[in-house]
Design a protein that fits this description.
It is built from 22 helices and 27 strands. By secondary structure, it is of the alpha+beta class. Helix 3 (83-93) runs antiparallel to helix 8, helix 17 (506-567) packs antiparallel against helix 18 (574-605) and helix 20 (653-669) runs antiparallel to helix 22 (711-722). The longest helix has 62 residues, at 506-567.
């Protein structure tokens, strides 16, 4: 057996095995010793201990109790309370297959309401007390539970007929009493599986018993029967209203509050005691319109319904000092009798704080995205981002710090606050890693930190941190949320927010602030990538300038002097002449590479404008093939051009000829051992398609357009893209059927 512990039940002795007994104060007896009715909401004063199961014959056989059982059996079914439904409700709330409301007589257990019992046990509405576990609750007048009867040390439970014949292993029961506080029976749930019963389940079962209230023990006169039925109906209706998740407020014909249910009291943080009129007066002090103005009594939805209006989805804000604002959605309508006369009004109230917060968070993330899209730096956008974030949270102070990688500090770049809540003076503008603060801890760990209430922190040993916490609370700030701004696994900064009310929704708030921090991280990452691209572009421009001036000039001098030496009429040896020719040849080649690099830089930067006109692409490639034939023949390569007639595109004729020359020169250069190079030009799919295939063109290492290897290939790709076309390498480097496909758009007409 295990004890069921909660705030109402505390078990101090677990040395003796047996069922768990839960003695409770007899709620039907008042301080003066006189009987009083039990009421839902009474606080149970209880204690528990482990004892052996007890069958108290003096209690079970008491004549007065047995007489009360007979009266209760007759009275309870007349109250129009669905007893089978109560048994079913108890079973479902505790996730058990069976539930039963019983009365314990002299020799029989009577079933007043049941759910899920085996038909053979429930037949006739009664069973021998030998099959009863309810008798244990009646014997000691307290709740009793067992997690596993078959495994219990007590033979009364281990050999109980319910366990042996019907497979019942676990049970939990609470006694039912009459108005004189006599135990007459119990509400019990049973399970065929071994299970532990929790304190919450026990509390739930006690609440269900409270719905029934004390079993009436009055003379069976017609007047008493009617009066008891009406009272129980009112009690049952009140219990139903209190069990609803929505708040309910009702006014009578005179405008007096007659219903202010439990959920509504919980919305307003009001005690369970007090009349509905007192509750509504207390609630009005904290109720505001959406614009922040205090709501007047005649503006309440239920007051408008008293004037005959039907009010749908009107919203109010509940502002309780020290707590987050809550948003309430109210519907109200008049109450009319059968003749259509208005006899009151009723309103239902739902807490939509979570939904409204989610909507605000979504709007805030969109606003942050818009702010960042219009900003060049986070320093420029920081204050606006913090204001949008704090407004969405309803918080009072926010600051943003970025990591200075050079100085290894966490520097504040922006802050925002409402009047009277600026706490930026409590921490320096720059934080070092060794300074104790929540921001530096987030920086070090990369994890968000949530402090729902600064006033309830455990002991803080760092004196500076303790002083800061005291200063925060002295300025009215109670909750703190801090999240890292990251790019991948690197912490780039920290965003911190404070508010003046204790918070309790860690999942929602942390998720939101982490999302905003993620947007900031993406912005920083993108900005750094843009800066890097700009630096690379500048480096490329500088390199192009270097090539264009510092390399071109001496190369021209080398080529000129080489030509002079070759033209010198004086006789030279063959070796000298071969050396001079090699210098001239490589100078020309190097100068061509430089020209291609300059062209590539100009094309990619957009500084080289194209002279667009109608171009006969067939003629361009035919001329390129004819010009490349001597070089191809020298390399043992056979060009096989198959060109469709009259293929025209809109383009720059010089650049398209340069493209054709680059393609053919690349194919010739990569295969000095000979081979065939098929070249095709066709019109297909609304585009002019040039296909260069075969062994030479298929070597991926040498395909024009691969920007990783040569200026010629990069220039070819840039020319194609400047003409709105595509360049595609097919196949893989280790296959012989690779190739190059270029597609250029045909003219619109």
């Amino acid at each position: 057996m295990r004890t069921l512990g909660c705030t109402l039940y505390m078990y101090i002795d677990g040395s003796v095995p047996g069922p768990v007994i839960h003695p409770i104060r007899r709620r039907g007896v008042g301080p003066d010793g006189r009987a009083r009715p039990s009421r839902a909401g009474d606080r149970l004063e209880a204690r528990g201990r482990r004892v052996m199961v007890v069958l108290n014959a003096a209690v079970l056989d008491d004549a007065a109790r047995l007489a009360a059982v007979e009266r209760g059996r007759r009275t309870l079914p007349r109250l129009r309370i669905p007893l089978d439904g109560i048994a079913r409700l108890a079973a479902r709330l505790l996730d058990a297959p069976m539930g039963v409301i019983t009365f314990i007589g002299a020799e029989e257990e009577h079933f007043a309401g049941s759910f899920g019992l085996p038909p053979s046990l429930a037949a006739g509405g009664q069973a021998s007390t030998a099959y009863s576990v309810c008798k244990y609750m009646v014997s000691i007048d307290a709740p009793v539970s067992s997690p596993d009867m078959l495994a219990d040390d007590d033979p009364q439970l281990r050999e109980h007929p319910l366990a042996g014949e019907y497979g019942v292993k676990a049970f939990l029961g609470v006694p039912l009493r009459d108005a004189d506080d006599r135990p007459l029976g119990s509400l019990t749930v049973l399970d065929t599986r071994a299970r532990e019963w929790t304190d919450a389940q026990l509390s739930t079962l006690i609440e269900v018993v409270e719905l029934l209230g004390p079993i009436p023990d009055r003379p069976d006169t017609a007047e008493n029967i009617v009066e008891d039925a009406a009272a129980e109906q009112r009690s049952f209706l009140s219990a139903i209203l209190d069990s609803m998740g929505e708040g309910v407020l009702a006014l009578d014909a005179d405008g007096e509050a007659v219903v202010f249910n439990r959920a509504l009291r919980e919305f307003y943080e009001l005690p369970a005691t007090g009349s509905p009129g007192e509750a509504i007066d207390a609630a009005m002090a904290h109720l505001h319109q959406r614009d922040g103005t205090v709501m007047k009594p005649d503006e309440l939805a239920v007051a408008r319904a008293m004037r005959g209006q039907i009010v749908t989805d009107t919203e109010a804000v509940l502002c309780v000092p020290g707590l987050p604002d809550r948003y309430l959605l109210t519907n109200a309508r008049p109450i009319r009798d059968a003749d259509g006369r208005r006899i009151g009004a009723v309103s239902t109230v739902r807490d939509v704080t979570g939904r409204r917060r989610t909507e605000r968070f979504r709007d805030c993330e969109l606003a942050v995205a818009s702010i960042l899209n219009q900003a060049d730096t986070l320093t420029e956008a920081g204050s606006a981002v913090l204001q949008a974030t704090a407004d969405a949270l309803g918080w009072r102070y926010a600051d943003l710090r970025l990591v200075d990688q050079t100085a290894c500090t966490l520097d504040r770049i922006a802050r925002w606050h409402t009047d009277g809540h600026d706490v930026s003076d409590l921490l320096p503008e720059q934080l070092r890693p060794d300074q104790a603060s929540v921001a530096t801890l987030v920086w070090a760990t990369g994890q968000p930190i949530w402090v729902p209430d600064l006033t309830r922190l455990p002991v803080v040993h760092d004196d500076d941190a303790r002083r800061r916490i005291d200063a925060y609370t002295e300025r009215g700030l109670r909750a703190l949320l801090c999240a890292p701004v990251c790019d991948g696994g690197t912490v780039l900064g920290v965003i911190s927010c404070f508010t003046d009310a204790a918070e309790d929704d860690e999942f929602l708030l942390t998720g939101f602030l982490t999302g905003v921090a993620g947007q900031l991280g993406h912005f920083l990452s993108r900005a750094r990538a843009d800066d890097l691209a700009q630096d690379l572009g500048q480096a490329r421009a500088d390199f192009t300038s270097l090539i264009g001036h510092d390399m071109r000039t001496p190369l021209t001098t080398i080529a000129s002097y080489t030509d002079l030496l070759l033209d010198d009429p004086r006789e030279r040896s063959d070796d000298d002449r071969h050396l001079l020719q090699a210098i001239a040849r490589n100078s020309t080649r190097l100068r061509g590479l430089i020209d291609n690099l300059i062209d590539l830089a100009a094309l990619q930067s957009g500084h080289l404008s194209l002279q667009m006109c109608d171009v006969d692409l067939t003629a361009v490639f035919a001329a390129a093939c004819e010009a490349a034939k001597p070089a191809a023949d020298a390399a043992g390569i056979t060009l096989q051009p198959k060109l469709d007639d009259d293929v025209h595109v809109t383009g720059d004729p010089d650049r398209l000829r340069q493209l054709a020359d680059l393609m053919l020169a690349g194919a010739i250069a990569i295969n000095p051992g000979g081979g065939e190079v098929p070249l095709a030009l066709t019109c297909t799919g609304g585009a002019a398609q040039i296909t260069l295939c075969g062994e030479a063109a298929g070597d991926h290492r040498c395909v024009p357009g691969d920007t990783s290897f040569s200026a010629e290939r990069a220039t070819a790709r840039a020319i194609v893209e400047q003409h709105g076309g595509t360049l595609t390498v097919t196949g893989t480097p280790d296959t012989a059927d690779t190739g190059l496909i270029i597609r250029l758009p045909l003219p619109a007409d």
